[in-house]
């Protein structure tokens, strides 16, 4: 007997043993498994008298035409009220349709107790600085500085000062006029 023949004989013997084990285990009931009869002994199928398709109802459904109501199903807004077709003068009964827009946010206002009296740069070429007075006290601010803990200076230009309200994130521009308050005298 060659080596290959021995291997085939061992393989055949193992397959016979595996088949016997599988047959013996398959005949035993599995503990904890429920049969269909044990789950619902009183099962009754639904009483459908005619399980065939109702072709006339299907044909009528397929011929139905979709008529939109004007409401966007992806919007939380209610549909506009129906337009009165019996009105003699349609201009008087105009109803706005479509998405309603919120008014634009109001830009922040410059505080009344802050006035501008000049701007300048440091000789080494840094960004421009603005000179402001707040209730008689001189402040020197540049881009990125915070004013009164409520406004961030974005940019100091030749004729304007761009700022942002820190709480709302809204931006505005304040015109820099040289006629503002003079620096306080010492």
Short description:
20% of the residues lie in helices and 20% in strands. The chain is α+β, with helices and mostly antiparallel strands.
Could you describe the 3D structure shown?
The protein is elongated, with a radius of gyration of 43 Å. The chain contains three helices and seven strands, in the order H-H-H-E-E-E-E-E-E-E. It has helices at residues 3-27, 36-39, 55-62, and strands at residues 114-120, 129-134, 137-141, 146-147, 151-156, 160-165, 171-175. The strands form two sheets. A four-stranded antiparallel sheet has the order 4-5-6-7, with no helix packed on it. A hairpin with a 3-residue loop joins strand 4 (146-147) and strand 5 (151-156). The protein is of the alpha+beta class. It has a domain at 114-175.
Summarize the helices and strands and which ones pair or pack.
Layout: H1 3-27, H2 36-39, H3 55-62, E1 114-120, E2 129-134, E3 137-141, E4 146-147, E5 151-156, E6 160-165, E7 171-175
Antiparallel strand pairs: 1-2, 2-3, 4-5, 5-6, 6-7
Record keyword descriptors for this entry.
186 residues; elongated; 3 helices; 20% helix; disordered C terminus; alpha+beta; three-stranded antiparallel β-sheet; four-stranded antiparallel β-sheet
Helix segment tally = 3
Strands ordered across the widest β-sheet: 4-5-6-7
* Radius of gyration, in angstroms, nearest whole number: 43 Å
Largest sheet: 4 strands, antiparallel
Enumerate the spans where pLDDT stays under 50 for 5 or more consecutive residues: 180-186
Q: Indicate the structural class.
A: alpha+beta
Which descriptor suits the 3D outline? elongated
Which percent range describes the beta-strand content? 15-25%
Question: How confident overall, as mean pLDDT?
Answer: 78
What distance separates the N and C termini? 120 Å
Residues in helix, %: 10-25%
**Order of helix and strand elements from N to C terminus:** HHHEEEEEEE
Strand segment tally: 7
